[in-house]
Design a protein that fits this description.
The protein is about 40% helix and about 15% strand. With about 150 residues, the protein is an alpha/beta fold. The protein has one domain: Response regulator (Rossmann fold). The two termini are about 15 Å apart. Bound molecules: 4-nitrophenyl phosphate.
Length: about 150
């Protein structure tokens, strides 16, 4: 089983969406025996919370229910997962700092690098933005999740 962990700052907007969209594709393609996913954040401000209502509202519109509860990253995550997909450069730097020696830095990746249309560094943080940015983030994450799964196959 190849286990991937999606990581953002608060684990209520970007990474729970990435986890849900990735697992939807895994399920649709009957790949559950090969891939598993989870998500987490750097912060524990929202620990135990469902994803942001705006993230969930847009996901529901596209037929996706997000049931993940926010949790902060732990040292064990570097033992329990094969690959870490990070939502922006600031979070990437922190995750690199936390990385124990055994974990290969090539297994920590910027998720936006898998965007087939606009590859780049950051999935924008929508938390303090309006609903249009949440819509944009949904589309970006959807593209990246599909292209990332394709790259794993
Ligand atoms: P996320 O968005 O990292 O995509 O979950 C954020 C959510 C909450 C906060 C920041 C970013 N916050 O500062 O509480």
């Amino acid at each position: 089983m190849y286990k991937v962990l999606f990581i953002c700052l608060g684990n209520i907007c970007r990474s729970p969406l990435a986890e849900a969209l990735f697992m939807k594709l895994v399920n649709e393609n009957q790949l559950n025996n090969r891939f598993a996913a989870d998500s987490c954040g750097l912060l524990d401000f929202h620990k135990g919370d469902l994803a942001d209502p705006r993230t969930r509202q847009i996901a529901i519109k596209y037929g996706l229910e997000i049931v993940h509860r926010s949790r902060p990253i732990t040292a064990n995550d570097f033992y329990n997962f094969d690959e870490l997909l990070v939502m922006d450069e600031a979070v990437f730097s922190k995750v690199m700092e936390m990385k124990p020696p055994h974990f290969d830095s090539s297994q920590i990746k910027l998720f936006r690098n898998f965007d087939p249309y606009q590859p780049g560094t950051d999935v924008p943080d929508p938390y303090y933005k309006d609903i249009a940015v949440f819509e944009e983030v949904h589309l970006i994450v959807e593209r990246c999740a599909a292209n990332y799964l394709k790259a794993l196959l």
